[in-house]
């Protein structure tokens, strides 16, 4: 079973590219092949929910990072080979009977393009296979290649195919006559096509591993350790947003006695950014990918649901408040299935009046707190709700992002502090921008 993430969450966390915005997928997509990019996207679409599989993928990527591996193939080979193998029409086979004066004449005037394309593709295949042989030899001498062992065995079994070995040797030593090209084409495009497709698949996978490993090294990301799902434990150190320059890292410890994080802070203090950072590292960790942090250990969850940038659904006649209600209902339905969910709510019920928002925030947070096998991150400006929840629940971790004042100017640390803050600087910011004065001038 895969890790469950919905479109709202993918949009909230900028997992995939939106117009004019960077994305987490774009950060990692340093692949060199179309096939590699497609596999990478599938990994993003379907994160893992098994600790063994997650740690295995992490170890594999870390192996390529530590070895500073380079992609052993030329990109232009793939276009030639993919196009060549995609043509399964038997009528396109080269025939020995066509090697006559007419074909020779056509070749002289440059008309025999199909033959030349096949010859180029075959040359690319031989280069591709030889590069795999060299790569395999390098891996044999690497004593730390155990995480990649299964793939190496599978690649070797293909390279050991007798007919492929014979053609590869012949292709490297014999003159490429029309007859030889027709013979190689018959074997490789029709008889051994499935083996070549498997080789391409291994190359695409390798492309992904090396691309992700390269990003991990460049960005100084770390590999998270997945813990068994029957635990509820999460250790985060130095977690930051990977798409922001000079991002500030934060630490957080989650246990069954602190599985609800109640976050307060003034506008612009960094609450939404922190929650997005949390969501991104949880998402990437369940992929087995490196994360923007200095350390991370986590119990495997069943899914991730966030509500950070919830849009109105005007086409269906939904107000922002009703859209919030429906979103909370969807999360509640997932929780009712006894799933272990990581839930993020940024400013619960901002679309309604303060009294209703206060009552709903208290009631829902208290209800969430009873789900001891899940993790919740809830932000709010209604600090009174926090005071009420202190009396009701013993498993809520109250934390805030502080604001310091330098004269009349607010300064933000972006570092978590313990407790509930009463910082409210909205009017200070409005006054600093001179909005009231502008309106007074216009009224004269």
Structural write-up:
The protein is an alpha/beta fold and 444 residues long. The protein is 51% helix and 14% strand. The chain folds into two domains: 61-218, no CATH class; 229-441, P-loop containing nucleotide triphosphate hydrolases (Rossmann fold, 3-Layer(aba) Sandwich), CATH 3.40.50. The protein contains 17 helices and 15 strands. The strands form four sheets. A seven-stranded mixed sheet has the order 1-9-10-11-6-12-15, with helices on both faces. Strands 3-8-4-5 form a four-stranded mixed sheet. A two-stranded antiparallel ribbon has the order 2-7. The N and C termini lie far apart (67 Å). The model has no long low-confidence stretch (mean pLDDT 88).
CATH architectural label of the largest domain: 3-Layer(aba) Sandwich
Q: What's the Cα radius of gyration?
A: 29 Å
Structural category is alpha/beta
* Low-pLDDT runs: none
Total count of strands: 15
Distance between the termini: 67 Å
* Percent of residues in beta strands: 5-15%
Write out the CATH superfamily name of the largest domain. P-loop containing nucleotide triphosphate hydrolases
**Major sheet details:** 7 strands, mixed
- What is the helix fraction of residues, given as a range? 40-55%
Sheet with the most strands: spatial strand order:
1-9-10-11-6-12-15
């Amino acid at each position: 079973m895969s890790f469950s993430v919905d479109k709202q969450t993918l949009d909230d966390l900028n997992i995939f590219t939106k117009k004019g915005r960077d994305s987490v997928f774009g950060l990692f997509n340093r692949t060199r092949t179309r096939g590699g990019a497609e596999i990478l996207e599938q990994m993003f679409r379907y994160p893992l929910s098994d600790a063994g599989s997650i740690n295995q993928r992490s170890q594999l990527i870390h192996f390529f990072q530590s070895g500073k591996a380079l992609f052993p193939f030329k990109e232009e080979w793939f276009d030639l080979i993919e196009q060549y193998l995609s043509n399964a029409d038997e009528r396109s086979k080269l025939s020995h009977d066509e090697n006559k004066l007419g074909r020779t004449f056509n070749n002289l005037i440059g008309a025999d393009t199909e033959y030349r394309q096949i010859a180029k593709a075959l040359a690319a295949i031989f280069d591709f296979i030889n590069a795999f042989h060299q790569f395999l030899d390098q891996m044999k001498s690497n004593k730390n290649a155990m995480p990649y062992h299964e793939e190496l065995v599978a690649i070797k079994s293909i390279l050991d195919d007798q007919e492929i070995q014979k053609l590869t040797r012949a292709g490297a030593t014999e003159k490429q006559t029309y007859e030889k090209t027709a013979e190689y084409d018959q074997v490789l495009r029709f008889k051994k096509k499935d083996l070549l497709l498997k080789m391409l698949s291994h190359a695409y996978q390798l492309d992904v591993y090396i691309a992700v490993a390269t990003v991990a090294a460049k960005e100084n990301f770390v590999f998270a350790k997945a813990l068994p799902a029957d635990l509820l434990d999460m250790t985060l150190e130095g977690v930051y947003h990977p798409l922001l320059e000079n991002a500030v890292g934060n630490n957080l410890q989650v246990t069954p006695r602190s599985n609800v994080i109640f976050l307060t802070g003034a506008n612009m203090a960094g609450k939404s950014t922190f929650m997005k950072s949390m969501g991104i590292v949880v998402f990437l960790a369940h992929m087995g990918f490196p994360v923007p942090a200095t350390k991370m250990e986590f119990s495997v969850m069943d899914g991730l649901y966030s509500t950070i940038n919830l849009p109105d659904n005007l086409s269906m006649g939904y107000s922002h408040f009703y859209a919030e209600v429906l979103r909370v209902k969807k999360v509640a339905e997932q929780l009712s299935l006894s799933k272990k969910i990581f839930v993020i709510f940024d400013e619960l019920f901002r679309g309604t009046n303060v009294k209703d928002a206060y009552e709903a925030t208290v009631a829902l947070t208290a209800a969430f707190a009873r789900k001891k096998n899940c993790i919740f991150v809830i932000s709010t400006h209604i600090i009174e709700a926090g005071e009420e929840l202190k009396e009701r629940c013993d498993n809520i971790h109250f934390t805030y992002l502080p604001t310091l004042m330098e004269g009349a100017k607010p300064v933000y640390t972006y570092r978590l502090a313990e407790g509930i803050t009463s910082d409210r600087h909205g009017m200070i910011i409005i006054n600093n921008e001179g909005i009231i004065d502008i309106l007074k001038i216009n009224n004269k």
